[in-house]
């Protein structure tokens, strides 16, 4: 088992052939989330993977309520090893209540954003970490179609996307479901630019 040290967090990783190993996108989202999160917040991370981002938040912030979801059973087990309260499910489907008192102040999602055709799919559960559908936005759009129902009035969402995903299309979609948008951080990595887009619920 490998351990990643990131600030106060110590994140354990099991077999990285079965789970997504935290990389530049994970680090960028974690850094931005630390700036956006406050004590007392109710936080949800969708698709937590190994649990890296949530583990960083839990290691650095006191008095937060945090829950995560993950579809990959291997990643879900790893996230639990890292101390997360986790529901193994696809996006929001395992979160039963949309009652106002149980909605979230901050929702995070490092969406799978690679444009992926049928013959480009990765075998097994790991495909969920990469496969964004033909245009790279399929899973992100599913998330955005539902997220408003889980966000408190005045709450925020943070989504990690890539320049290959199509920033303009993502912004248009976020606005169409009721969020005011800002680009908080950008980072050039190899052939792409990573971005964290914040949506504030109007």
Class per helix and strand makeup: alpha/beta
What name does the CATH topology carry? Rossmann fold
| Sheet having the most strands | 7 strands, mixed
Helical segment count: 5
| Overall pLDDT | 91
Q: Architecture in CATH? A: 3-Layer(aba) Sandwich
CATH superfamily: Vaccinia Virus protein VP39
Helices and strands, in N-to-C order? EEHEHEHEEHEHEE
The number of domains is 1
- Helicity level, as a percent range? 25-40%
CATH class (first level) name:
Alpha Beta
- How many distinct beta strands? 9
Beta-strand percentage range: 25-35%
The side-by-side strand order for the widest beta sheet comes to 5-4-3-6-7-9-8
- Low-confidence region ranges: none
Silhouette: globular
What's the gyration radius in Å? 16 Å
Measure the end-to-end span: 44 Å
Could you characterize the architecture of this molecule?
The protein is α/β, with parallel strands linked by helices and 202 residues long. The chain has one domain (2-201): Rossmann fold. Helices cover 25% and strands 32% of the residues. It is built from 5 helices and 9 strands; from the N terminus they run E-E-H-E-H-E-H-E-E-H-E-H-E-E. The protein has helices at 24-36, 52-60, 73-81, 138-147, 167-176, and strands at 2-6, 9-13, 42-46, 65-70, 86-88, 104-110, 151-162, 179-189, 192-201. The strands form 2 sheets. It has a 7-stranded mixed sheet, with helices on both faces. Helix 1 (24-36) packs parallel to helix 2 (52-60). The N and C termini lie far apart (44 Å).
